[in-house]
Design the sequence.
């Protein structure tokens, strides 16, 4: 039987075709991977832009709500506290009849009114609020409750304060301001305790009242706006939020936040 030797040119052609095919397949794979990469990159950019817009919108809403709450506070203090002090001073002065002791008492009442006005001026001045630290803002809020005799308060701060983005601090303050407002309006509490703890890289805040408490599951089922706002804001800034309550045993808001490297301009 005759033996046929393969043509070297045929082998070269086959090898060339195989090489071209492999190269084309590699180019297709690279093209697909590049297309997927570009698409994912664009999706991430859109997600970042959406997240940034949502953050900025939340900052604006928080600032507006803080101002509105501040104006309500000023209105209450002018009517319920300072107005009553000035009315009392007027009555004391009218009834003094030249009696030095009663005049001194009226002067003392006016002095209390002036002290309240100075405290109130911190709320009126937006620059003062903007320049406050988170601790100072919370302390100012608690002091107001004490002055207005809504309930007694305590504030305990431990650890060395860590740096927190000012805008993040605004959202955190608004969350606790909302909790405090709910305590005043609904809890029937006589005491509010706030503990702020700083560790090396974490801020931990617990606020607890001794009020009537409520059913958490029922509130979530009813989609309570206050609770929903607090939780959504916590999620937005990457904080861990836990609201716990039991009927007859008060309510607690626990926030834990670890600052990230990113900056919100």
Sequence:
């Amino acid at each position: 039987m005759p033996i046929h030797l393969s043509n070297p040119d045929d082998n070269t052609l086959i090898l060339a075709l195989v090489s071209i095919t492999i190269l084309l397949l590699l180019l297709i794979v690279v093209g697909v991977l590049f297309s997927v990469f570009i698409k994912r990159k664009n999706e991430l950019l859109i997600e970042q832009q959406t997240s940034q817009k949502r953050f900025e919108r939340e900052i604006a809403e928080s600032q507006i709500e803080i101002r509105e709450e501040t104006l309500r506070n000023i209105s209450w203090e002018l009517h319920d506290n300072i107005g009553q002090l000035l009315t009392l001073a007027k009555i004391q002065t009218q009834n003094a009849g030249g009696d030095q002791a009663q005049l001194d008492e009226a002067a003392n009442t006016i002095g209390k009114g002036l002290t309240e006005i100075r405290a109130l001026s911190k709320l009126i001045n937006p620059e003062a609020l903007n320049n406050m630290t988170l601790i100072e803002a919370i302390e100012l809020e608690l002091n107001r409750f004490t002055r207005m005799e809504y309930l007694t308060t305590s504030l305990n701060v431990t650890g060395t304060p860590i740096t927190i983005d000012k805008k993040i601090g605004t959202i955190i303050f608004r969350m606790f301001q909302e909790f405090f407002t709910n305590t005043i309006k609904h809890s029937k509490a006589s005491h509010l305790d706030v503990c702020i703890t700083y560790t090396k890289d974490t801020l931990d805040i617990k606020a607890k009242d001794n009020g009537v408490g409520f059913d958490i599951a029922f509130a979530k089922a009813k989609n309570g706006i206050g609770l929903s706002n607090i939780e959504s804001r916590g999620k937005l800034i990457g904080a861990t939020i836990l609201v716990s309550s039991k009927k007859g045993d008060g309510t607690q808001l626990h926030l834990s936040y670890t600052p990230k490297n990113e900056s919100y301009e």
About this structure: The chain has seven helices and five strands. Residues 79 and 85 are 10 Å apart (CA to CA). The mean pLDDT is 80.
